[in-house]
Amino acid sequence: MNLTRLCTYSTRSCLLSTRYLSTSSEYKVKGTAEFFDKQKVLNRPMSPHLTIYKPQLTSILSISHRVSGVGWGVLIYGGTLLTLMPGGFSHYVQLAEQVAPGAGIMIALKATLLLPLTYHTLNGFRHLAWDTGKGFKIAEVYKSGWSTVAVSVLISLLIAIAL
Amino acid sequence: MLSVIARSGCIRPIARQLAPSMSQVSHMSGSTVTHWKAERYVSILTVGAMMTAAVHPTLAVDHALAILVPLHTHWGLEQVFTDYIHIKPLIPIVGILLKVLTGFTMIALLYFNQHDIGITQAVKDVWNIKRVNPEELG
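The joint structure predicted for all components is written out below.
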């Protein structure tokens, strides 16, 4: 059984392992491109099958990190466009105050906006810990995962209410 | 058979595949290592700048935010595009568009710091938006 056959069983890890097997960077790039082309021709279904695969804390937190990052990215890039509108930024803040909802809804809005930011930041530190090689045991991954969720929710609510 | 799989590296803890650890970095080429490290330093600096802005806002911190936040966002979005965009002719176009957009955002934010109220004050103002009673407006 050669390496290509093995890759039919574990696409991602073999993709990574082909990098380790070779030393020249040129070979690495060529090998990766060939690998992707081959997979495309084979027209395999996506793995994991998202609609039937059981959601796990690990995968949900992983995609949440992405979604929260992209969400805030769009908000920041979009918000920057607002600063360029004629009349100065403060003018638009004053306009917003005339259409702003009541205090209760404002707190809910703030907490909703804050949660992805605090989560992304705290989960970012979780990633940095992994980058140093710490916290890879499954029990540790779940413990840090749940802690990140709990602390993010807590901080978001606290800031939204207190500030 | 099992030994073949093990040697080819197919059996690896899943977390190590998702986030390259320091030991894996040693397998990357020179520029990849620099980029990988730069991404992490910028992430930490971004959090640091945001914390500093919260307790001690200055023009310098606002300028740092104007560079760090779009840079961190840029690298994040770049990775997302790399992972999900597989239509070959689109890849370079999206890459260039993102670079232009990020550069534009940085310049616009630096300009906003210099000529308007600046990032920190803007965030504070938006945060403090409260419904104004129509009668109070006069």
